[in-house]
Design a protein that fits this description.
Elements lengths: L21 H14 L10 H28 L5 E5 L9 H8 L2 H10 L4 H6 L10 H15 L4 E6 L7 E5 L2 E5 L12 E12 L2 E6 L5 E6 L2 E13 L6 E11 L10 H16 L14 H25 L7 H4 E6 L6 H12 L4 H11 E4 L10 E3 H7 L1 H21 L4 H7 L2 E2 L5 E3 H7 L3 E4 L2 H9 L3 H6 L4 E3 L6 H7 L2 H11 L20 H26 L8 E6 L8 H16 L9 E6 L7 H18 L8 E5 L5 H7 L5 E4 L11 H7 L3 E4 L5 H8 L5 E2 L4 H9 L4 H6 L2 H11 L12 H9 L5 H19 L2 H13 L6 H13 L12
Parallel strand pairs: 1-2, 1-10, 2-9, 10-11, 11-15, 15-16, 17-18, 17-20, 18-19, 20-21, 21-22
Antiparallel strand pairs: 3-4, 5-8, 6-7, 8-9, 12-14, 13-14
The structure holds ligand 26Q.
Length: about 850
């Protein structure tokens, strides 16, 4: 247990390391400032105070962490291991304060030291260890796992550079390196004693050992060392503190001058640098070909370290390897960690000498796979030559899995060679490729999609043959988000109203928000609700002014679309509507137009030219519209740069309208849609992803629906979609496209937007023009509703009231009960 420093401690006072009252916190901060930061308070910078406070909060987590480790060590249990190449955990200080329940005391403690808590919260660098939805989902799940007291470990990569920071220069996105570790990370613990070697390259040798068993030796060309770097993940008001274990790559042996002659020395330095490159940088999605080889190496690196770590934990508990699947339930967050299936076989067969059949049974009982996309271009494959070159032994194992699997298929469907071709783990058309989604499916006992519609489509399309073979293995687990971060922490004004109206229990049982329904027509409650919303909009307006210089009116309708920029997410559909609205206002066709502020945020993959052009279109339209005096401030457009978790805290609580307008069938779930809803925004959306379930929960009167359904999209495609027809029969659409093509939003340059406009007019792969007219009509219904504040407020209240299903606690309960079969373990703190 930690020692108890007595800095300024009075008789009987709480410890400066663990006490939760304001005085103990104050002493803790002083102690850490002097002893850890090495600063005299008189010379301390804001960063020093932040660090001292972070360490003080961390101290409080450590005894819970220790109690959790001990609690797990002394009990029979099963551990959920969440394998993910991304964990977008966001800033930690505020969340840890909230989960410990010491926000008020900490505020008071800092005030007594002359420091403002909010200022300190604002200077924290967030770990941007993810691209978007998938990485943030993993972080929400860690919060729920700990809150629900479920034994769990998150396994991933400690990238030195996370997702790039986005700046807007001259209307275009510019990428800036994310140096999140520059000033140190107070939340991580490097564990040099927990490290493993990972092999790459070389060749394999087959032999028969003394006992006559067939053995394979992988003679690798190089090895990299992975060192554990842990971050504590504390649950809300419980003692459970799980670990997020991220692997950092290092050179196997730090090179030693004396071991090399001059030539070898430089080679040794080179090798060292190459090893350390492995965990250097997070790859953006939608990046064709980018760093292919290194990305596969990253995946194998963190997966191998994680499985070796599980074996170490098993050995430490003196459990036989045969009990691996009883001890661990491993969830694969998309196919990125799916090489784990072959790696576990390798560890069990090659290193632990288990027979193949037993290793295979263990493997399939251990893994479950979550799919996050149906887009064919986003399904992960790796060229066989690259695979063989980097991971020769793993390719052999995949071939063997495939051989046995296809035998099984042949027995079920004799002579059906086209089925064999479709289901094979190897795509043999053209250059041979390993299909990672097939590997993940064959090697798992459970496969799930992330929203009801997505799971249905998954069974009908991408994994159809597999669902036919093993229907009992297919599940749906609709995504969820954590109300701790996305209401309690980021919308304190709303949280206060919720506490008062439905009781504090909503934080861990979000379905209690249903009690708000009783107040949906209560006019005094409406006033309170609107005061909260108005406050949040003022806060966001202030941020927008500080960051972009644009002044927006908090009384305008805040119409917000924040998410990664992608053609399927259709930010350009939104932009086309804005151009239409602008034209109407210029013509003084004012009837039905309400003051609106359109806010966009999101990053484009650096190599995705069309997405970058979509950003340019938004900033181009913004420049023209915002500076047109005839608009009289009725229309404002903002591109809020660098949308990340920190900025998200300001955005969701301030939204009136949530834009969820992807082409039906393309967005697996969406999770921003849920964050908006629980903060009282109303959705305008297509029947895509979790929108379908949001609409079911909230009722059709409280959701603005438009557009083709997934089935209709397929039908239109089959019947031959001709976008030009849509342009011909819609004068406003034609005008909007001509204005864009004519250089009106690009300072007269007619070339810039050509690729965008031509793609829409010629092929329009995401049916933007097909949905345009219905979208415009739907936005008119939005305007009508906005003009009736009572009606709008009622809808807003009902959206929050009916968002209970979308808590990540519900999702994690479903994974625990149905897929992992893990029950909670209560952790006690052995002190008064
Ligand atoms: C793959 C290979 C090489 C480099 C990068 C990648 C890569 C990285 C990240 C591919 C995809 C991603 C991220 C995908 C993602 O965020 N998907 C979203 O997941 C959410 C959580 O389930 C869903 O809500 C969204 O609908 C889905 O788009």
């Amino acid at each position: 247990m930690p020692t108890n420093p007595t800095f300024g401690k009075k008789e009987g006072a709480e410890s400066a390391r663990s006490g939760l009252d304001a005085d103990a916190l104050r002493r803790g901060v002083m102690d850490n400032l002097i002893c850890l930061q090495g600063r005299h308070p008189a010379f301390a910078t804001l960063q020093d105070w932040y660090m001292a406070l972070a360490y003080t909060v961390r101290d409080r987590m450590l005894e819970r962490w220790a109690a959790t480790v001990e609690g797990y060590a002394t009990r029979e249990l099963r551990v959920a291991c969440y394998l993910s190449a991304e964990f977008l955990i966001g800033p930690q200080l505020g969340n840890n304060l909230v989960n410990l329940g010491i926000e008020a005391n900490t505020r008071a403690a800092m005030q007594s030291l002359g420091q403002d808590l909010d200022t300190l919260l604002a200077i924290e660098e967030e770990p941007g260890l993810g691209n978007g939805g998938l990485g943030r989902l993993a972080a929400c799940y860690l919060d729920s796992l700990a809150t629900l007291e479920i034994p769990a470990i998150g396994y991933g990569i400690r990238y030195e550079f996370g997702i790039f920071n986005q700046e807007i220069r001259d209307g275009w996105q510019a990428e800036v390196t994310d140096k999140w570790l520059q000033r140190g990370n107070p939340w991580e613990f490097l564990r040099p004693d927990v490290s493993f070697y990972v092999s790459f390259g070389g060749h394999t040798e087959h032999e028969t050992d003394a006992q006559g068993r067939f053995r394979v030796r992988w003679i690798s060309a190089s090895q990299v060392k992975g060192v554990a770097c842990d971050m504590p993940m504390l649950g809300y008001r419980v003692n459970t503190c799980n670990a997020l274990r991220l692997w950092k790559s290092e050179a196997v042996e730090s090179f030693d001058l004396q071991d090399f002659n001059a030539g070898d020395y430089y080679q040794a330095v080179q090798d060292k640098v190459a090893s350390e490159t492995l965990s250097k940088v997070l790859y953006p999605n939608d990046e064709p070909e980018a760093g292919k080889r290194l990305r596969l190496a990253q995946q194998y690196f963190f997966v191998s370290c994680s499985l070796q770590d599980m074996l170490r934990l098993l050995d430490r508990r003196r459990e036989p390897v045969g009990r691996f699947a009883q001890m661990f339930a491993v969830q694969l967050n998309d196919t990125h960690p799916s090489i784990a299936i072959a790696e576990l076989i390798r560890l069990l067969v090659d290193e632990r000498c288990l027979p193949w059949d037993q290793a295979w049974d263990i493997t399939r009982c251990t893994f479950a796979y979550t799919n996050h996309t149906l887009l064919p271009e986003a399904l992960e494959t790796w060229g066989v030559p690259l695979f063989r070159n980097l991971l020769p032994r793993l390719l052999e194992i995949i071939f063997e899995i495939n051989r046995r699997f296809l035998d099984e298929v042949r027995q079920r469907h004799p002579g059906d060679e086209s089925r064999i071709e479709r289901m094979s783990l190897i795509d043999e058309a053209g250059e041979k490729k390993v299909r990672m989604a097939h590997l993940a499916t064959v090697g798992s006992h459970a496969v799930n999609g992330v929203a009801a519609l997505h799971s249905t489509l998954l069974r009908q399309t991408v994994l159809r043959d597999f669902a036919e073979l093993w229907p009992e293995r297919f599940y749906n687990v609709t995504n969820g988000v954590t109300p701790r971060r996305f209401i309690l922490l980021s919308n304190p004004a709303l949280a206060q109203v919720l506490d008062k109206t439905v009781g504090e229990g909503w934080v861990t049982d979000l379905t209690r928000l249903r009690k708000l329904e009783a107040h949906a027509d209560d006019v005094t409650f409406h006033d309170e609700w609107r005061r909260v919303r108005r406050w949040n909009k003022e806060v966001l307006a202030g941020r927008i002014r500080d960051v972009t210089g644009i002044v927006v009116d908090p009384d305008a309708l805040f119409d917000i679309q924040v998410k990664r920029i992608h053609e399927y997410k259709r930010q350009h559909l939104n932009a086309l509507y804005i151009v239409t609205l602008y034209q109407r206002l210029r013509r003084d066709q004012e009837q039905g137009v309400v003051p609106r502020c359109f806010i966009f945020g999101g990053k484009a993959a650096p190599g995705y030219a069309m997405a970058k052009l979509m950003i340019r279109l938004i900033t181009g339209v913004a420049e023209v519209v915002n500076n047109d005096p005839s608009m009289n401030g009725r229309l404002k457009i903002v591109f809020f740069p660098n949308f990340n978790v920190k900025n998200a805290h300001f955005v969701y609580p301030a939204a009136d309208l949530s834009e969820q307008i992807s082409t039906a069938g393309k967005e697996a779930s969406g999770t921003g849609n849920m964050k908006f809803m629980m903060n009282g925004a109303i959705t305008i959306g297509t029947l895509d992803g979790a929108n379908v379930e949001i609409r079911e929960e909230v009722g059709e009167d409280n959701f603005f629906l438009f557009g083709l359904s997934a089935d209709e999209v397929e039908r239109v495609k089959r019947e031959g979609y001709r976008p030009e027809d849509r342009v011909e029969c819609n004068a406003e659409l034609r005008e909007a496209l001509e204005l864009i093509a004519g250089g009106y939003f690009s300072r007269g340059d007619r070339e810039v937007f050509r690729p965008l406009v031509e793609t829409l007019r010629k092929s329009d792969p995401f049916f933007v023009l097909a949905d345009y007219a219905d979208y415009v009509a739907c936005q008119e219904r939005v305007s009508v509703a906005w003009q009736d504040p009572r009606r709008w407020t009622r809808m807003s209240i009902l959206n929050a009231a009916r968002s209970g299903k979308f808590s990540s606690d519900r999702a994690i309960r479903e994974y625990s009960d149905r897929i992992w079969k893990i029950s909670p373990v209560r952790i006690a703190l052995d002190r008064p």
